[in-house]
Amino acid sequence: MFEQNILSRFNNPLEEQLVKLFHSLNLPLHFNKTGNKEFTNYQRISIIILFHKSKKSLREFIVELQESRWVSWLDLEKIPKKSTLHDWIMIFDMKIVHKISKVLLPENIELTSIDGTAFDSWQRSRHYEKRALEFGELPYMPPVKAGIFIDVKSQSIIDFEFVTNNKHDVKLAERIFKRNTLKNIRGLGDKGFDSENLHEIARANGINFYAPLRKMHKWGSKNRKPRGFYRRKCIEPNPDYNQRNINETVNSVLKRTQIPFLRSKKDSRKEKEFGWQVVWYNIKRKIKFSIGNESQTFFIQFNLFVLSGQSRRLG
Predict the structure, then answer these.
(1) Are strands 185-188 and 111-119 parallel, antiparallel or unpaired?
(2) What is the pLDDT of residues 269-297, one digit of tens each?
(3) Considering the domain 107-277 in this protein, what is its CATH number?
(4) Sheet harboring 111-119: ordered strands across?
(5) 172 near 116, Cβ under 8 Å?
(6) Which of 58, 74, 105, 125 minimizes the number of CB atoms within 10 Å of its CB?
(7) Domain residues of the chain, as ranges?
């Protein structure tokens, strides 16, 4: 008998990805050998991801957590307090956050893209902003900037660089490429990444990078070849360059669905908030691809079952 519905031992796809994520990280259940062990690192990471998924304040999220099924799914003996959750976010530094986001990447990555974008660092009420301007100037709250390096096929974020000042996109890309451990991959960037030094860093770290040349406005520059060995290779158009726009799609999804603005006020906490949002984004991409592959496998198995039944009737 052919069973169409196979019960999973997980309650939902998010719980499945959280369990797989924690096992892939190889973190201990507890950082301390002695002392309080009321919560495990699996519970901490899961609750932090659920908190950033909720888009609510710490106080509101704790109230919502008490009424949700995650209390039993995570096997929580007690509900953490607002200050406890805040301390957990401070425990995990950016090295661990980067490690978590990279664990969620697909195995085979061939074509990548990089782009820089800005995010609002604080959301002010337009009504009170207008009234405050009647009594004086408001303090300037500059946006933050992030360089986002993605896998074009899965639209997952491979790496990111976060700064709270206005730095050039090339500087952000240099830091990302120096940390890269993927080999024999292709990279795409817009004209803002036209830099010979960036090309050299990319080639040294396993990235065959392409960025179109900037327009030269100096007199007589049209007949002059660009400087740099790798820049001259970018004179000819790249057939994959039209897929660079997928990076703009990822930036738009982050701003529309996850980060309309960053809630944190301190620069270090803004970076952690952005990093955990990247982790949640990669989990969503992982869930989408896993569900798509499972449904595709189910249809293939179902078609094979139908064909085998028809063949038996014909025989």
Answers:
(1) parallel
(2) 999 999 999 999 999 999 998 876 554 44
(3) 3.30.420
(4) 157-163, 144-151, 111-119, 185-188, 207-210
(5) yes
(6) 125
(7) 8-92, 107-277
